[in-house]
Input
Amino acid sequence: MPDIKVINEVEAMQEISEFLRLSGKKIGFVPTMGYLHSGHLSLIKKAKEENDIVIVSIYVNPTQFLKGEDFETYPRNFEADYELCKNESVDYIFYPDNLQMYKRNHMTNVMISNITTKLEGEIRPGHFIGVATVVLKLFNITKPHSAYFGQKDAQQCIVIKRLVEDLNVDVKIEICETVREENGLAKSSRNVYLSDEEKENSKVLFRSLELGKSLILEGVNETDKILSEMGNLIKQNIPGVEIQYIAVTDNELLNNINELNNYTGNVLISLAVKTNKTRLIDNILFYKN
Ligand code: PAF
Output
């Protein structure tokens, strides 16, 4: 197995990507903040299947964390990530530091309106400015044909698709299914913060999403009833949980759907909870006739 090339500098990565493109290679890109798990690996596998070259970025982007959030303590383990990437035959890891990514006098940010102030954006104001800015920078650095994101971060997927469409970014966005633990808990680097008991209790999040989905597909009309049944199920199973939001929306503008009987199309049920110190998000996406 050939060693992966680890690139720390923006200009070097750009030169390599340009050369690969000119040589007719198709580049697949998987942006990550590291501490890779099987969710990331599923993105890498898909990128591998569909491209000649796979670039994975590992960068914990400070600008998408709010003051008081877990930027400092966000789990990091480059050696383990390197081995996992090697097992998947990744070609390049782009692994910059903050000075490479945000030069002195950095002043430009990408602000997408409307959809970025709802749900996650309401709880984490400014978060998506950080995400959109770094993702656009990473696209400009790695010059991919396709980029791979996990459905687990449903709103991030919507935001990135908007960014690409609105700014005519020439990258195909591929959304891959959420990978789950056997008990249904969505894989996340932040799951490392959970005790075994919390992990076990948190399986109810996916159960509650499935409950919401089945109530909608059975024809329940009032969204409030669905939200309260889901909320009750979560509260009964996670002691002391703080439910930050549960929402039933469309999957493009993230508008609330209040009268379900009048609605046809994709339905996204998404939620965020805080259990002890850990914030967990999850969602389920399905089509309603
Ligand atoms: O989903 C993530 O890990 C991050 O938000 C991303 C897309 C790598 C940007 O920092």
In short: The pocket of pantoate is lined by residues 31-33, 61, 64, 131, 134-135, 153, 156 (CB under 6 Å). The domain at 189-288 is CATH 3.30.1300.10 (Pantoate--beta-alanine Ligase; Chain: A,domain 2). The mean pLDDT is 97.
